[in-house]
C-alpha cells in the first residue's frame, strides 16, 4: 500500500494496531525470558499505561487535525465565494494558530482587493457613462449638419454657417478628449508632478494669460495682487493649469463689465491664492458637488463647458499637498481659495 493513498483514519487505526502489538509483545517476551508472573503483570500494566497515553495523544491530535481541516475548508469557501467576516480562531501560540492567522490575513487582503476591483469597475462604468453623455450632443449636432449639407442645397452663406457650427462642435470634442487625456494621465501616475520651491508670480501670470482675451471680450476688469518675491513649493506647469481652470470658470460665469480679483497672501505654512468674482454664485447645497467630474449646474447649461475643470484643478492641487476651498452665495459671486505649501 502506498502511503500517499493512506487516509488519516486508516493511518490512525494502523498506528493503534502496531502500538498495541508492540506493547503486548514486550511483556510476553519478558515473561519467556524471566518466567516471572510479577514481571509479566508489571509489563502488562506498563504497556496498558503507554497505550492509554498514546491513544489519548493520537486522539487529541486527530481531533485537532479535523477541527483545523474544517476551519480551513470553511475559510477557503468564504475566500472564494463571499464577503463575510473571517472566522475568529482561538489565540493559541501553536502551529495551527500560525497557519490560521496567516490565512485570515490572506482572506482580509483578498476581500479588500475584491472591494477595490469592484470600486474601480464602478468608477470605470461611471466614467464611460459620463463620456458617452458628453460626446452624444456634439456628435448628434455634427450628424445633423452633415446630413443637411449632403441632402439639401444651401447658399454659400448658409454653408459657411454650417461649417462654422461643425468646427465649434469639433473643437468641443477635441477639448473634451484633451482634458480626459490629461486627467487620465494624472490619475494613473503617467504624469508625475514635480513640486519645487519657485516664485508663484510667474505661475499666476501664465494662468492669467490664458483668460485675459476672453475677459477683455466681456469687458471684465481683472485685478491682481501678488508679491513677486513669494516662493511656493509647486509644479509650475500643472499648477498653472489648475489656476487657469478656476479663472476660466470665473470669466465664464461673471457678467459683462464684472470684476475678478486675484490676490495672494503669505501664510506661515501655506500660500493662499484667492480668486474672487462677482458672478452668478453657487448655491450652498451644491458647493460640495462642483468638484465632481462632469458636474454642471442645471442653470448654466447654456454656458460652454463640460464640467471637468474644477475636478482637474482639485486633483492637481491635492497631489501637491494643498487644498481648495470655496465660499459663495447666489447672486453674490464666488471666491475660490487655493492653498499651496510654502516648502
Describe the secondary structure blueprint for this structure.
Layout: H1 8-34, H2 37-81, H3 95-151, H4 156-187, E1 196-199, H5 200-209, H6 212-217, E2 221-225, E3 231-234, H7 236-253, E4 259-266, E5 270-277, H8 309-318, E6 323-328, E7 334-341
Parallel strand pairs: 2-4
Antiparallel strand pairs: 1-3, 4-5, 5-7, 6-7
Helix pairs in contact: 1-2, 2-3, 3-4, 4-8, 5-7, 7-8
Q: Would you write up a description of this structure?
A:
Helices cover 60% and strands 13% of the residues. The longest helix has 57 residues, at 95-151. The chain is elongated and about 130 Å long. Strands 2-4-5-7-6 form a 5-stranded mixed beta sheet. It has 8 helices and 7 strands. It has helices at residues 8-34, 37-81, 95-151, 156-187, 200-209, 212-217, 236-253, 309-318; strands spanning 196-199, 221-225, 231-234, 259-266, 270-277, 323-328, 334-341. The chain is an alpha+beta fold and 343 residues long.
Strand-pairing-aware structural class: alpha+beta
* Percent of residues in β-strands: 5-15%
Number of helices: 8
Beta strands, count: 7
Order of helices and strands: HHHHEHHEEHEEHEE
Helix content class? 55-70%
Shape: elongated
Radius of gyration: 38 Å
Give the uncertain stretches in residue-range form. Answer: none
